[in-house]
Write a structure and sequence with these properties.
The chain is α+β, with helices and mostly antiparallel strands. The protein is built from 6 helices and 22 strands.
Length: 386
């Protein structure tokens, strides 16, 4: 009896095992994905370029007369106003030259006064047939010669006064003066103009950059193939940002466009003018530049720049079709707006549902549960739409 029980136990265990339900794979539910239609907005189309800041004025301060440098009246690197005296060259000899020229002028004027009186006397005598013609001619020649001597003396005085003025080197405009290149006590202007320092005007300041021939033609087409006047040019806004700045915080206007295309580079030189009262912009800074492509606006689709991906075939975004299946959509992107929105010029429609979730859960060909939301225009992009 015990033996039969031992035989039945394995059979019973096998039967119980065969009665367990079959273990089948259960796919996970479709992921929740945030989607939104592209934001339709009228914007001013901009071209994003790079360039450099350039000083409005840069002048070398030189010694134009010979002499010993007697004083330096500024601190290296300081800001000075126009007509501030920066250097003084020894003036003793030049003051003496002025006095000498003044004395020569006084003597020449005295000679002229005497010769004019003699000429008048001889002219009267000649009319009375008392004096000879030759005597009158000599008096007239003497008067004319003395007049020339006065003019010569006046010129010498002007030269002497000018040279005396050159002994004082003044700031030609408001600006920052570089370090001095010559020390007090050194001889300057010995046969050549000696460079003493350089003054740089920082307010306002230029920004120079180049645009391609293709962009020039595009802008011209946007303007109706007409040339912009200088007055209209000065009203076209221009925005720049430095390497460590977000967006384009510095506001200015176009100032100059070269009338010719550089045949070697195929570009046109363009310059902007910016107020720089706090002198934050220094010459030589690398600048990111945003320049409008025309005077009007155009309607575009806007999506967050972060949702744009790229592969070997180009840039694309993920969209959810009517069956809630993720698809890959090729796009052509435009300008990047402040705040992270990117303009899309081709590839999207107004009713497309663009995938905003970027955690990798949206896969092309996969089914999802779309969660509708909307794309908002950030405040930083307001100036692009106005």
């Amino acid at each position: 009896m015990v033996y039969r029980s031992l035989i039945l136990l394995p059979l019973l265990a096998a039967c119980l095992a065969g009665c367990k339900p079959e273990n089948k794979f259960q796919p996970p539910p479709p992921p929740d994905i945030s989607v939104a239609p592209p934001l339709q907005q009228e914007i001013v189309p901009f071209e994003e370029l790079t360039g450099n800041t350039v000083a409005f004025n840069t002048v070398d301060l030189v010694a134009r007369v010979e002499g010993f440098l007697t004083s330096q009246n500024y601190v290296d690197g300081s800001y000075v106003d126009k007509d501030t005296t920066l250097f003084i060259i020894e003036q003793t000899m030049y003051k003496a030259k002025v006095k000498e020229a003044e004395a020569q002028l006084d003597a020449a004027k005295a000679e002229l006064a005497q010769s004019e009186a003699e000429f008048v006397r001889q002219e009267t005598l000649l009319r009375q047939n008392v004096s000879a013609q030759t005597t009158y001619d000599k008096a007239k020649a003497k008067r004319d010669s003395d007049r020339a001597n006065v003019e010569n003396a006046e010129g010498n005085l002007t030269i002497a006064q000018t040279n005396l003025g050159y002994t004082t080197v003044q700031a030609p405009f408001n600006g920052v003066v570089t370090k001095h290149l010559v020390s007090v006590g050194e001889l300057v202007g010995n046969g050549v103009a000696t460079k003493l320092a350089t003054i740089v005007q920082l307010d306002p300041i230029y920004v120079e950059f180049n645009i391609s021939e293709q962009d020039v033609l595009k802008i011209r087409q946007n303007l109706g193939n007409r040339r912009v006047t200088v007055e209209e040019l000065s009203k076209i806004p221009l925005d720049i940002g430095l390497m460590n700045e977000e967006g384009y915080p510095h506001k200015g206007f176009l100032n100059y466009v070269s009338p010719e295309i550089d045949a070697q580079t195929g570009t046109v030189l363009v310059r902007g003018l910016f107020n720089n009262p706090d002198r934050q912009l220094l010459p030589g800074f690398f600048a990111r530049i945003r320049m409008p492509q025309g005077l009007g606006k155009e309607k575009v689709f806007l999506i967050p720049n972060r949702v744009i991906a790229e592969d070997q075939a180009g840039r694309y975004v993920l969209v959810v079709n009517k069956d809630d299946v993720v698809e890959q959509r090729r796009i052509t992107q435009g300008m990047l707006l402040p705040g992270g929105l990117r303009a899309i010029t081709k590839g999207l429609a107004a009713d497309d549902r663009v995938v905003l979730t970027t955690n990798g859960r949206a896969v092309p060909g996969g089914k999802v549960v779309p969660k509708p939301t909307s794309i908002q225009l950030p405040p930083a992009a307001d100036n692009v739409t106005k």
